[in-house]
Amino acid sequence: MKVLLLVNPFSSSVTARTRVVIRKALAGDHDVELVETNRRNHATRLAQGAAAEGVDVVVALGGDGTVNEVANGLAETRTAMAVLPGGSTNVFARTIGLPNDPIEATADILEAMEAGSIRRVGLGSANGRYFCFHVGVGYDAALVEQVERRASLKRWAGHPLFMYAGITTWMRHYDTKHPHFTVRYPDGEVVTDGYFTICANTNPYTYVGNRPFDVAPDTTLDDGLAVVTVRSLRLDRFLRVAIKALNGGRALRDDHAVHLRTDVDEVTIEGIDGVPFPYQVDGDFLGEIRRIRFRHVPDVLDLVLPTAFTDLTDVTDVTDVTDVTD
Asked: Any long-range contacts for 320-325 (C-beta under 8 Å, 24+ apart)?
Protein backbone atom coordinates (compact mmCIF):
# COMPACT_ATOMS: atom_id res chain seq x y z
CA MET A 1 0.00 0.00 0.00
CA LYS A 2 0.94 3.63 -0.46
CA VAL A 3 1.49 5.12 3.02
CA LEU A 4 2.25 8.64 4.21
CA LEU A 5 3.95 8.78 7.62
CA LEU A 6 3.04 12.23 8.89
CA VAL A 7 5.14 13.29 11.89
CA ASN A 8 4.89 16.19 14.30
CA PRO A 9 8.54 16.50 15.41
CA PHE A 10 7.56 18.80 18.30
CA SER A 11 5.29 16.24 20.01
CA SER A 12 6.34 15.11 23.46
CA SER A 13 7.27 11.50 22.70
CA VAL A 14 8.64 11.92 19.17
CA THR A 15 12.41 11.48 18.78
CA ALA A 16 14.71 11.08 15.79
CA ARG A 17 15.18 7.41 16.68
CA THR A 18 11.42 6.86 16.88
CA ARG A 19 10.91 8.30 13.40
CA VAL A 20 13.65 6.11 11.91
CA VAL A 21 12.45 2.89 13.55
CA ILE A 22 8.80 3.44 12.63
CA ARG A 23 9.54 4.37 9.04
CA LYS A 24 11.72 1.28 8.62
CA ALA A 25 9.00 -0.95 10.09
CA LEU A 26 6.30 0.47 7.82
CA ALA A 27 8.54 0.29 4.73
CA GLY A 28 8.97 -3.46 5.14
CA ASP A 29 5.70 -4.12 3.30
CA HIS A 30 4.55 -0.69 2.07
CA ASP A 31 5.60 2.24 -0.08
CA VAL A 32 6.26 4.87 2.60
CA GLU A 33 6.90 8.59 2.39
CA LEU A 34 7.72 10.60 5.56
CA VAL A 35 6.78 14.26 5.97
CA GLU A 36 7.01 16.54 9.01
CA THR A 37 4.68 19.29 10.15
CA ASN A 38 6.00 22.69 11.14
CA ARG A 39 2.98 24.82 12.11
CA ARG A 40 -0.63 24.60 13.24
CA ASN A 41 -3.03 23.09 10.66
CA HIS A 42 -0.11 21.96 8.49
CA ALA A 43 -1.09 18.32 9.11
CA THR A 44 -4.58 19.00 7.74
CA ARG A 45 -3.21 20.33 4.47
CA LEU A 46 -0.72 17.47 4.14
CA ALA A 47 -3.48 14.92 4.77
CA GLN A 48 -5.75 16.59 2.20
CA GLY A 49 -2.94 16.42 -0.34
CA ALA A 50 -2.33 12.76 0.42
CA ALA A 51 -6.00 11.95 -0.14
CA ALA A 52 -6.00 13.85 -3.43
CA GLU A 53 -2.96 11.84 -4.58
CA GLY A 54 -4.58 8.49 -3.79
CA VAL A 55 -2.54 7.57 -0.72
CA ASP A 56 -4.09 4.53 0.97
CA VAL A 57 -3.24 5.28 4.60
CA VAL A 58 -1.94 8.35 6.43
CA VAL A 59 -0.16 7.35 9.64
CA ALA A 60 -0.23 10.21 12.16
CA LEU A 61 2.67 10.20 14.61
CA GLY A 62 2.09 12.95 17.15
CA GLY A 63 -0.20 14.06 19.93
CA ASP A 64 -3.97 14.35 19.92
CA GLY A 65 -3.80 17.75 18.21
CA THR A 66 -1.92 16.23 15.28
CA VAL A 67 -4.44 13.39 15.08
CA ASN A 68 -7.27 15.93 15.00
CA GLU A 69 -5.69 17.83 12.13
CA VAL A 70 -5.16 14.64 10.12
CA ALA A 71 -8.75 13.54 10.75
CA ASN A 72 -9.98 16.90 9.45
CA GLY A 73 -7.89 16.45 6.31
CA LEU A 74 -9.13 12.90 5.64
CA ALA A 75 -12.80 13.12 6.68
CA GLU A 76 -15.17 12.48 3.76
CA THR A 77 -12.37 10.85 1.73
CA ARG A 78 -11.42 7.20 1.22
CA THR A 79 -7.87 7.57 2.53
CA ALA A 80 -7.66 5.87 5.92
CA MET A 81 -6.10 7.31 9.06
CA ALA A 82 -3.83 5.31 11.38
CA VAL A 83 -2.71 6.71 14.72
CA LEU A 84 0.60 6.36 16.56
CA PRO A 85 0.95 7.88 20.06
CA GLY A 86 3.53 10.67 20.07
CA GLY A 87 2.14 13.14 22.60
CA SER A 88 2.00 13.42 26.36
CA THR A 89 -1.42 11.78 26.90
CA ASN A 90 -2.49 10.24 23.55
CA VAL A 91 -6.15 9.93 24.46
CA PHE A 92 -7.45 8.82 21.06
CA ALA A 93 -4.72 6.24 20.40
CA ARG A 94 -5.29 4.65 23.80
CA THR A 95 -9.07 4.82 23.40
CA ILE A 96 -8.90 2.60 20.31
CA GLY A 97 -6.73 0.08 22.12
CA LEU A 98 -3.19 1.00 21.11
CA PRO A 99 -0.28 0.81 23.57
CA ASN A 100 1.11 4.16 24.69
CA ASP A 101 4.51 3.46 23.15
CA PRO A 102 4.74 4.51 19.46
CA ILE A 103 7.05 1.67 18.43
CA GLU A 104 4.89 -0.98 20.09
CA ALA A 105 1.81 0.64 18.53
CA THR A 106 3.43 0.41 15.09
CA ALA A 107 3.37 -3.39 15.33
CA ASP A 108 -0.38 -3.28 16.05
CA ILE A 109 -1.00 -0.89 13.15
CA LEU A 110 0.96 -3.10 10.74
CA GLU A 111 -1.05 -6.12 11.88
CA ALA A 112 -4.29 -4.20 11.42
CA MET A 113 -3.33 -3.06 7.91
CA GLU A 114 -2.39 -6.62 6.97
CA ALA A 115 -5.76 -7.86 8.25
CA GLY A 116 -7.73 -5.09 6.51
CA SER A 117 -8.95 -3.80 9.86
CA ILE A 118 -10.19 -0.47 8.54
CA ARG A 119 -13.61 0.74 9.57
CA ARG A 120 -15.74 3.75 8.66
CA VAL A 121 -16.44 5.64 11.91
CA GLY A 122 -18.28 8.75 13.02
CA LEU A 123 -16.81 12.01 14.28
CA GLY A 124 -18.13 14.98 16.15
CA SER A 125 -18.31 18.41 14.52
CA ALA A 126 -17.94 21.76 16.32
CA ASN A 127 -18.90 24.67 14.05
CA GLY A 128 -17.76 22.54 11.13
CA ARG A 129 -14.46 21.36 12.61
CA TYR A 130 -14.30 17.61 13.22
CA PHE A 131 -13.15 16.16 16.52
CA CYS A 132 -12.15 12.60 17.34
CA PHE A 133 -12.81 12.29 21.06
CA HIS A 134 -14.02 15.51 22.68
CA VAL A 135 -14.45 19.25 22.84
CA GLY A 136 -14.03 20.90 26.23
CA VAL A 137 -15.90 24.11 27.01
CA GLY A 138 -15.32 26.43 29.97
CA TYR A 139 -13.05 25.43 32.84
CA ASP A 140 -11.47 22.54 30.95
CA ALA A 141 -10.46 24.80 28.08
CA ALA A 142 -9.09 27.43 30.46
CA LEU A 143 -6.94 24.69 31.99
CA VAL A 144 -5.62 23.65 28.56
CA GLU A 145 -4.79 27.29 27.81
CA GLN A 146 -2.60 27.41 30.93
CA VAL A 147 -0.84 24.21 29.89
CA GLU A 148 -0.16 25.56 26.40
CA ARG A 149 1.41 28.67 27.89
CA ARG A 150 4.01 26.31 29.34
CA ALA A 151 4.24 24.12 26.24
CA SER A 152 8.01 23.72 26.54
CA LEU A 153 7.46 21.82 29.79
CA LYS A 154 5.00 19.26 28.38
CA ARG A 155 7.71 16.93 27.10
CA TRP A 156 9.27 16.73 30.57
CA ALA A 157 6.48 17.45 33.05
CA GLY A 158 3.46 15.83 31.40
CA HIS A 159 0.77 14.92 33.92
CA PRO A 160 2.21 16.97 36.81
CA LEU A 161 1.92 20.05 34.59
CA PHE A 162 -1.77 19.33 33.95
CA MET A 163 -2.39 18.88 37.69
CA TYR A 164 -0.63 22.16 38.46
CA ALA A 165 -2.58 23.94 35.72
CA GLY A 166 -5.83 22.48 37.04
CA ILE A 167 -5.24 23.94 40.49
CA THR A 168 -4.06 27.35 39.32
CA THR A 169 -6.88 27.63 36.80
CA TRP A 170 -9.49 26.88 39.47
CA MET A 171 -7.90 29.37 41.87
CA ARG A 172 -6.94 32.28 39.56
CA HIS A 173 -7.78 31.90 35.89
CA TYR A 174 -11.48 31.00 35.71
CA ASP A 175 -14.58 32.38 37.41
CA THR A 176 -15.88 29.50 39.54
CA LYS A 177 -18.68 31.54 41.12
CA HIS A 178 -20.93 32.31 38.14
CA PRO A 179 -22.15 30.18 35.19
CA HIS A 180 -20.66 30.98 31.81
CA PHE A 181 -22.98 29.46 29.18
CA THR A 182 -26.25 27.71 28.35
CA VAL A 183 -26.59 24.33 26.66
CA ARG A 184 -29.57 24.00 24.27
CA TYR A 185 -30.94 20.76 22.79
CA PRO A 186 -33.20 20.58 19.71
CA ASP A 187 -36.04 19.09 21.77
CA GLY A 188 -36.24 22.27 23.86
CA GLU A 189 -34.29 21.17 26.94
CA VAL A 190 -31.98 23.92 28.18
CA VAL A 191 -29.24 23.84 30.82
CA THR A 192 -28.83 27.44 31.97
CA ASP A 193 -25.93 27.11 34.43
CA GLY A 194 -22.96 25.68 32.55
CA TYR A 195 -19.48 26.02 34.05
CA PHE A 196 -17.76 23.16 32.25
CA THR A 197 -19.06 20.98 29.41
CA ILE A 198 -17.53 18.02 27.64
CA CYS A 199 -19.00 17.08 24.28
CA ALA A 200 -17.61 13.59 23.72
CA ASN A 201 -17.41 11.37 20.66
CA THR A 202 -15.74 8.56 22.65
CA ASN A 203 -14.88 7.67 26.22
CA PRO A 204 -12.73 8.25 28.28
CA TYR A 205 -12.45 12.02 28.42
CA THR A 206 -8.73 11.72 29.26
CA TYR A 207 -6.26 9.64 31.27
CA VAL A 208 -4.69 10.41 34.63
CA GLY A 209 -1.52 8.38 34.36
CA ASN A 210 -2.80 4.97 33.31
CA ARG A 211 -6.24 5.53 34.80
CA PRO A 212 -9.12 6.53 32.51
CA PHE A 213 -11.20 9.58 33.44
CA ASP A 214 -14.65 8.32 32.42
CA VAL A 215 -17.53 10.74 31.90
CA ALA A 216 -19.74 8.74 29.52
CA PRO A 217 -18.68 5.07 29.74
CA ASP A 218 -21.04 3.77 27.05
CA THR A 219 -20.09 6.29 24.34
CA THR A 220 -18.27 4.77 21.37
CA LEU A 221 -17.35 5.68 17.81
CA ASP A 222 -20.61 4.05 16.67
CA ASP A 223 -22.88 6.24 18.85
CA GLY A 224 -24.00 9.83 18.90
CA LEU A 225 -22.31 12.38 21.13
CA ALA A 226 -22.36 12.45 24.91
CA VAL A 227 -22.81 15.90 26.48
CA VAL A 228 -21.72 16.23 30.10
CA THR A 229 -22.26 19.59 31.79
CA VAL A 230 -20.89 20.37 35.25
CA ARG A 231 -23.27 22.84 36.88
CA SER A 232 -21.13 23.89 39.83
CA LEU A 233 -17.42 24.39 40.49
CA ARG A 234 -17.79 24.58 44.25
CA LEU A 235 -14.77 22.66 45.46
CA ASP A 236 -16.56 19.83 47.30
CA ARG A 237 -18.92 19.20 44.34
CA PHE A 238 -16.16 19.42 41.77
CA LEU A 239 -13.98 16.95 43.66
CA ARG A 240 -16.95 14.58 44.02
CA VAL A 241 -17.50 14.67 40.25
CA ALA A 242 -13.79 14.02 39.62
CA ILE A 243 -13.74 11.05 41.99
CA LYS A 244 -16.77 9.51 40.29
CA ALA A 245 -15.13 9.94 36.87
CA LEU A 246 -11.99 8.20 38.14
CA ASN A 247 -14.14 5.34 39.38
CA GLY A 248 -15.84 4.45 36.12
CA GLY A 249 -18.15 7.42 35.60
CA ARG A 250 -21.48 5.60 35.87
CA ALA A 251 -22.42 7.39 39.08
CA LEU A 252 -22.30 10.76 37.31
CA ARG A 253 -25.84 10.25 36.00
CA ASP A 254 -27.17 10.53 39.54
CA ASP A 255 -25.09 13.55 40.56
CA HIS A 256 -27.19 16.70 40.91
CA ALA A 257 -24.18 18.84 39.92
CA VAL A 258 -24.03 17.13 36.50
CA HIS A 259 -26.36 17.16 33.50
CA LEU A 260 -25.66 14.27 31.13
CA ARG A 261 -27.22 13.19 27.84
CA THR A 262 -25.97 10.48 25.51
CA ASP A 263 -26.48 9.55 21.85
CA VAL A 264 -27.01 13.22 20.96
CA ASP A 265 -27.13 14.24 17.29
CA GLU A 266 -27.02 17.99 17.84
CA VAL A 267 -26.57 20.53 20.64
CA THR A 268 -25.70 24.24 20.88
CA ILE A 269 -23.74 26.10 23.56
CA GLU A 270 -24.10 29.88 23.89
CA GLY A 271 -22.36 32.34 26.18
CA ILE A 272 -24.59 33.96 28.80
CA ASP A 273 -25.44 37.54 27.73
CA GLY A 274 -23.27 37.00 24.65
CA VAL A 275 -20.06 36.80 26.69
CA PRO A 276 -17.48 34.53 24.99
CA PHE A 277 -16.19 31.40 26.70
CA PRO A 278 -12.99 29.35 26.17
CA TYR A 279 -12.99 26.07 24.28
CA GLN A 280 -10.55 23.38 23.20
CA VAL A 281 -10.82 20.69 20.54
CA ASP A 282 -9.14 17.30 21.08
CA GLY A 283 -6.75 18.90 23.54
CA ASP A 284 -5.84 22.02 21.52
CA PHE A 285 -6.93 25.40 22.92
CA LEU A 286 -8.64 27.43 20.18
CA GLY A 287 -9.51 30.64 22.02
CA GLU A 288 -12.87 32.09 23.05
CA ILE A 289 -16.18 31.96 21.23
CA ARG A 290 -19.78 33.03 21.80
CA ARG A 291 -21.60 30.08 20.23
CA ILE A 292 -20.78 26.51 19.22
CA ARG A 293 -23.06 24.15 17.37
CA PHE A 294 -22.16 20.49 17.80
CA ARG A 295 -23.26 17.70 15.48
CA HIS A 296 -22.56 14.00 15.25
CA VAL A 297 -21.49 13.00 11.73
CA PRO A 298 -21.68 9.22 11.21
CA ASP A 299 -19.54 7.16 8.81
CA VAL A 300 -17.19 9.98 7.82
CA LEU A 301 -13.64 8.65 8.36
CA ASP A 302 -11.86 5.39 7.51
CA LEU A 303 -9.86 4.45 10.60
CA VAL A 304 -7.25 1.72 11.03
CA LEU A 305 -8.19 -0.17 14.19
CA PRO A 306 -6.18 -2.78 16.11
CA THR A 307 -7.53 -6.23 15.29
CA ALA A 308 -8.41 -6.86 18.93
CA PHE A 309 -10.56 -3.70 19.03
CA THR A 310 -13.23 -4.60 16.47
CA ASP A 311 -15.27 -7.43 15.02
CA LEU A 312 -13.75 -7.91 11.57
CA THR A 313 -17.15 -8.73 10.07
CA ASP A 314 -17.85 -4.97 10.34
CA VAL A 315 -14.54 -3.89 8.83
CA THR A 316 -14.08 -2.44 5.37
CA ASP A 317 -11.49 -4.41 3.42
CA VAL A 318 -8.43 -2.26 2.80
CA THR A 319 -8.56 -3.00 -0.92
CA ASP A 320 -11.79 -1.00 -1.09
CA VAL A 321 -9.88 2.08 0.03
CA THR A 322 -7.69 2.12 -3.05
CA ASP A 323 -10.60 1.66 -5.44
CA VAL A 324 -12.46 4.84 -4.52
CA THR A 325 -10.49 7.99 -5.26
CA ASP A 326 -13.09 10.61 -6.05
From this structure: 320/78, 321/56, 321/57, 321/78, 321/79, 321/80, 321/118, 322/1, 322/2, 322/54, 322/56, 324/78, 325/54, 325/78
306 three-state secondary structure: coil
- Distance CA(40)–CA(83), nearest Å, equals 18
Upper half-sphere CA count for residue 63 (Cβ side, 13 Å): 19
Instruction: Give the pLDDT of residue 192.
Output: 97
Residue among 233, 254, 232, 251 nearest 243 (CA): 251
- C-alpha span between 130 and 132 (Å, rounded): 7
Of 302, 303, 276, which Cα lies nearest the Cα of 291? 276
Where in the chain are the domains?
2-117+305-323, 130-297
pLDDT band at 12 (very low <50, low <70, confident <90, very high): confident
Fold for the domain defined by 130-297: Tumour Suppressor Smad4 (2.60.200)
Domain 2-117+305-323, architecture per CATH: 3-Layer(aba) Sandwich (3.40)
Q: Residue 154: its pLDDT value, please?
A: 58
Helix (H/G/I), strand (E/B), else coil: 247: coil
| Contact indicator for 70, 41 with CB cutoff of 8 Å | no
Q: How far is CA 250 from CA 47, 206, 213, 224, 260, in A?
A: 37, 16, 11, 18, 11
Peptide bond before residue 186 is cis, with ω within 30 degrees of 0: no
- What does the pLDDT read at residue 153? 61
With contact defined as beta carbons under 8 Å apart, do 275 and 180 qualify? yes
Q: Would you give the end-to-end CA distance of the chain in angstroms?
A: 18
Say how many C-beta atoms besides its own lie within 10 A of residue 25's C-beta: 16
3-state secondary structure of 197: strand
Over the stretch 158-190, which tens digit does the pLDDT of each residue have?
A: 567 777 777 888 889 999 999 999 999 999 999
DSSP state string for 134-194: EEEEEHHHHHHHHHHTTGGGHHHHSHHHHHHHHHHIIIIIS--SS--EEEE-TTS-EEEEE
